[in-house]
Specification:
The protein is an alpha/beta fold and 753 residues long. The protein has 26 helices and 24 strands. The longest helix has 34 residues.
């Protein structure tokens, strides 16, 4: 009886790659084009007597069951074929790809020889150029003995790993069944959260958990998911974050469970630009030393890494550099073998998500944990949106090689025609929502993408970053155009002559995210602000059986004094008049209780206006402000002003870097002022968004303005109370805070005064 099963492609991908890492631009066919190419080759073989297409094959080696499907077998010629599609010259195909292809066809040859008792066989790699339809055929004669030896060698190498992995899983699950909570007791509210997460994992459901800041949500979700892992036969847990600090919190929580010293493989995935050791160099062997011979050294690096188990950013880098391989791509490889992966939400929800792709390919049972999940709506919208600028295209037309003049000119003409037609329809407006896709322009973009691809293929040594960027943008736009529907808007903003922006803006991520949630065994989305449930269920495409839970706050009303100033209007046309009472409110509260405060305004312009007036009226009170385009050192310096025992007011923008995800416990922050309702700006795009959400859900105004605005308000106010010992004040300034529907979106434990 087989103890392990593996597909030929997976086995070869593990054992047979060799040579350099090579991620230079190589235009590969789309999945659909590849399917069509295979079908074309199969049709061409229909007139060959006895030709067998899509031939299923399998074999056994010491408990390892190997299976796959050969593309074709010509019985008369005794030749097995493996078909691969490509674009451009085959000379540009990376050596590691070619070695993988030969390994696959050798495995099929070995299985055929064993199944049909063949003494020898011809192996053929058939490369089909999907543009020209031309086949390039490479053949190799091989004996049964040679192929059997190759088959045994590959199986032995994989079997040793499979046995190691099975032993690891047994040790891991054994340890997890004895896992105990690392502290003497749960924090108030933390036990209820953990119980809900465990139930979600046990029933395979999606859970939205609204839990207040300070109860330990990270540990309160990781601990029960890990406890459920062996019982629910979970293969992987993915802890997904919106920002870098969230990854650190997850790693700290895992560390307190003794994960670094126990049989639990933890991997932190880092963005390529942050993991790169040689910025500015291409990911290929002739330019980057860590790409040169990458696959020759990968096996040893992989083995050391999985034995190390704890692979945060620094530990992974240490292993990679010790074996002279790229840290980023070593991390991508280890995502296949880690038990807990900590990384950004795009690793599961983006259109080319690594973890989602691996889960599909390997049929994993995955438990998802999504931190700060209130941000997922906007993050997902960005993942499935694209934009092109006419000005950039015009620049490239002047700078491009002659071979691309015609396709660029065609796009230019179609774009100009779209501008003219749209402007004639509504000449007084800059922003236009198009009723339908501009099919002629999209067709011209398709043709341009093909022309740029051909040019780059024919000029492999010419590095043209601008052309490559345009190609990727055009491909992204065309790909989204293929799935265009009422989940997205196609818009055109005419900023002036020859200056317009064409966008495909996703407004309802549900249509793209629903399959991602369905693919997971269970998913837990948690945040301090996940109200109302229907907003997230509808916009994220959560499964019908999803559950919403609100964890009772461990905080009491006396810890947080919530003041309302409903005599102040912060509406745009009232802002000049609002400055004086806002400044007076800040100064009065500071004098009443000196200490550190954050004051949140709706925009940088408003912030600068209020702070200027504040400094003039109260120069004795220390004040500092968030500035536009702050870099990380500047953000750190801003937060460093909130030192224990200090005093002063920091001014920040609501929804910005300091409105969520920062932790200033104790007297580092004793209060916050929020001088806005947080509503997104009233503009043409948001009005178009409102109309689309109204048509789909009947909740246009709430989904566009009120709910997103109040999420920002509650997040900002949540900076004040970070633990059961904290006390502080929140002052909300806007007359609309008097409205019942606005107050209904505030935390229930607040006592308003």
């Amino acid at each position: 009886m087989s103890r392990y099963r593996v597909a030929v492609r997976t086995l070869c991908d593990f054992t047979a790659r060799e040579g350099d890492l090579d991620h230079r631009f190589t235009p590969s066919p789309s999945a659909q084009a590849g399917i069509e190419g295979h079908a074309l080759v199969a049709k061409r073989r229909e007139n060959i007597a006895g030709y067998e297409a899509e031939l299923p094959l399998s074999g056994e080696y010491q408990g390892l069951h190997v299976s796959g499907r050969a593309d074709g077998f010509d019985v008369a010629a005794n030749c097995v074929e493996e078909v691969k599609t490509h674009r451009g010259s085959l000379t540009r195909m990376a050596d590691n790809q070619r070695s993988l292809h030969w390994a696959q066809v050798k495995m099929y040859g070995a299985l055929l020889c064993a199944e049909r008792d063949l003494p020898h066989i011809t192996l053929a790699l058939v490369y089909l150029n999907i543009d020209s339809g031309q086949e390039t055929r490479l053949t190799l004669e091989a004996s049964n003995e040679e192929l059997t030896a190759f088959f045994v060698d590959q199986c032995q190498r994989f079997l040793a790993w499979a046995e190691q992995e099975a032993a690891h899983r047994e040790r891991r699950d054994g340890w997890l069944t004895t896992l105990t909570f690392p502290h003497a007791d749960f924090r108030p509210g933390q036990r209820a959260l953990a119980e809900d997460v465990f139930k979600a994992a046990s029933t395979g459901r999606c859970l939205l958990a609204q839990a207040p800041t300070g109860i330990g949500k990270t540990l309160g979700t990781l601990f029960p998911m890990l406890s459920a892992m062996p019982r629910q036969r979970l293969d992987r847990i993915a802890f997904l974050t919106m920002k870098t600090p969230g990854r650190r919190l997850a790693l700290d929580a895992l560390a307190c469970l003794d994960a670094p010293t126990q049989p639990l493989r933890v991997l932190e995935l880092v963005a390529r630009e942050k993991a790169c050791e040689y910025p500015g160099t291409a990911c290929q062997g002739d330019t980057c030393p860590l790409a040169r011979g990458f696959y020759d050294r990968l096996s040893a690096a992989r083995q050391v890494a999985v034995e190390k188990s704890w692979l945060d950013r620094e530990a992974l880098r240490e292993v990679a550099l010790a074996h002279h391989v790229c840290p980023y791509y070593l991390g991508q490889e280890l995502a296949r073998w880690a038990d807990v992966v900590v990384g950004d939400v795009n690793h599961w929800f983006d259109s080319h998500a690594l973890l989602h792709g691996l889960a599909q390919a390997n049929d994993w049972r995955v438990g998802l944990l999504v931190d700060e999940a209130h941000n997922l709506v906007e993050r997902a919208r960005g993942m499935y949106s694209a934009a092109l600028t006419q000005q950039r295209l015009s620049y490239l037309r002047r700078q491009s090689p002659p071979a691309l003049a015609k396709p660029l000119a065609r796009v230019g003409r179609q774009w100009q025609a779209l501008n003219k037609e749209t402007a004639e329809h509504a000449p007084e407006r800059r922003y236009h929502v198009l009723e339908a896709l501009p099919t002629k322009l999209v067709g011209a973009l398709h043709a341009l993408a093909g022309a740029i691809t051909d040019y780059l293929v024919e000029h492999p040594d010419e590095v043209n970053q601008a052309l490559q960027e345009l190609l990727f943008e055009a491909l992204a736009f065309c790909r989204l155009a293929e799935s265009f529907g009422d989940h997205s808007l196609c818009d055109l903003e005419i900023q002036g002559k020859g200056r317009s922006v064409l966008g495909l803006r996703n407004v309802i991520p549900a249509d793209f995210l629903a399959p991602r949630f369905e693919r997971a065994h269970c998913a837990v989305l948690f945040s301090a602000t996940l109200t109302p449930f229907h907003y997230y269920r509808n916009l994220l495409g959560l499964p019908e059986q999803s559950v919403w839970r609100e964890v009772d706050s461990p905080f009491v009303a006396c810890q947080l004094e919530v003041q309302l100033r409903t005599d102040i209007s912060t509406r745009y046309h009232h802002r000049v008049a609002s400055v004086t009472p806002i400044v007076a409110t800040l100064a009065a509260q500071y004098r009443r209780t000196p200490g550190h405060y954050l004051a949140f305004l709706s925009s940088f312009a408003y912030l600068e206006q209020v702070m200027r007036a504040f400094e003039l009226a109260h120069p004795e009170i220390p004040a500092w402000a968030q500035t536009r385009s702050m870099q990380e050192p500047e953000r750190d310096a801003f937060l460093a002003r909130f030192a224990p025992g200090g005093k002063g007011i920091g001014f920040a923008v609501l929804g910005g870097a300091f409105a969520e995800g920062i932790d200033l416990p104790g007297d580092r922050l004793i209060g916050a002022f929020v001088a806005t309702l947080g509503l997104p700006p009233f503009n043409d795009f948001n009005e178009a968004l409102k109309a689309r959400l109204q048509a789909r859900f009947g909740q246009g105004d709430d989904y566009t303005y009120h709910i997103p605005g109040m999420i920002k308000v509650v997040q900002a106010a949540g900076r004040v109370i970070r633990s059961p010992e904290d006390e502080g004040v929140v002052v909300l300034m806007d007359d609309r805070f008097a409205q019942n529907k606005v107050r209904a979106l505030l935390p229930r434990w607040w006592q308003l005064s």
